[in-house]
Amino acid sequence: MKEPKSKIRQIWQQLYPDADSGILSSFMEKLDKAKNEISFPPHEKEWYKDAIVYSLYVDLFNKDFPGLENKLDYLQDLGVNCLWLLPILDSPGKDAGFDIKDYRSIRPDLLGLPPESSNDEKAAVFAGFLDKAHKKGIRVIFDIAINHTSDQHPWFLESRSSADNPFRDYYIWAEDDKGYRDARIIFKGLCESNWEKDGDQYFFHRFFEFQPDLNYRNPDVLIAMTENLIFWLKLGVDGFRADAIPYLWKEEGTDCENLPQTHMLVKFFRAVIDHIRPQTLLLAEACQKPNEVVKYFGDGDECHAGYHFPLMPQMFKALHMQNSSPVADVLSKEVTPDIPKESQWFTFLRCHDELSLELVYVTEEDRKYIHDNYCLKPEWNFRLGQGVSARLSELMERDPDRIALAYAMMLSLPGTPVIYYGDEFGKFNDREYYEEMIKLTGKDDTRFLVRGKLNWDQIESELNDSGSFSSKVYRQVSKLINTRKKYPVFGRGILEMIEVSDTDGNNVHEVMGYHRTYSCNSILVLLNLSDKEKHVSPPTARIKTSKQDMLGQAVIIDEGNKSLRIPAKGYYWFFV
Prior knowledge:
Oligomer: single chain
Helix content: 25-40%
Strand order of the largest sheet: 1-2-5-9-10-11-12-16
CATH superfamily of the largest domain: Glycosidases
Radius of gyration: 24 Å
Strand content: 15-25%
Shape: globular
Distance between the termini: 38 Å
CATH architecture of the largest domain: Alpha-Beta Barrel
């Protein structure tokens, strides 16, 4: 692999062969200066493969960064060693912070600072938080939307002010709304067009009309965005979740997704990161089919990791069908190709968005099945049937054992797991927050149902009550997380699906079984997806003499036929 600086120059020449050479020369000088200013120790190689990631909105989790600091011990006890901070950069907040108006400023309300505080003051407070998190063994990554800005960003305010403004070409303007006809409308039911009229011209946007897309055909845009990343690298951030990366480059006559130039832009960002602080995570947010997402790993020279969006709906389908085939199919090499050795999938049951059924590995039949069986209320419907807006506890019909079973599956499958804040104790949908945000934004966006504030006085009271719903969920989920965290085989091991049978040799489809193997370690996972106890033939002889599994659960072998009993909605993790 080429040395990062050589790669930066090569990509630049490919993207902008006619650009002024002075632009790149000036940037390279800044790059070297930034590298010399960083004093943080290097990251461990592939640290993200052993991470337990916890995703949260700072204000909704516990008001602000001081409040989050107060909960670092809680997160540490849960087993978390990486925080994914959902949008923290300064924003009007019309799209939960994904509409950024200042890439180098954190919202002052999140820092406990007055609005007039300088960016340096804000950065100092944030750096202090990073230091405290790092001392507890918790890394910190955050969201950065690099495809678009807020319409309140200074770049756009300048751009829209006049046709001859130097920032005009930071965005995509046209005389009419006829361009890029093959680019799909992402927010079906919320937006009618990818073009918004502004004065006597139109600007292009893939998301909401208040989020104009950046124009990466302009080399100044790439430099400016890269310098924003460098700013945070110098403060000690451990990674970036690159939001909406498939849409970066636009080309007439295409669907404007996953274009070769987009991959070149990602390689540019990665080369800069590799030069300044290697192993700083670049995480791809690309809700695409696996064969497209895999391309964002490149040859190990694009993103370090990417979300396995297609796995999420198939886990839910398997749980409802009480059959392992949806998960086995989506993880087969025919659907999920091999990835570079240093790359990693990130997996999740729920997140800040809907349970997405769009452009992922679902047929129309799959989509209908999942939507019909999980969209239990009309208000959960998102984008005209393209998703379901519901918390995990709601999808699992508030059943602690089903929630734990879902986690036992996700946490033992390949990839780095992401826990969405509140799901560890079964937070419900928040209708009050949903209605509040409709009034604030003017958008009936059902994703607001899965967000909402945590009431820690109430939560702590419930967690201290061993008979409460929250306590039952938390005890099981925290045990699973902390057990997984001890063993690298979960994050690094290969997967081998197995057939599970009863003692007469009949296949027991309701029980999902698989081996995870890494180095000299091998683990067997058995998951009873049904609501009835199952008796199966122990897949390995060692189980017959086991008193308990890795989770400390008692193992019961029938004396008569020597079958293993798996409780309804039960699960086992075994050393083999």
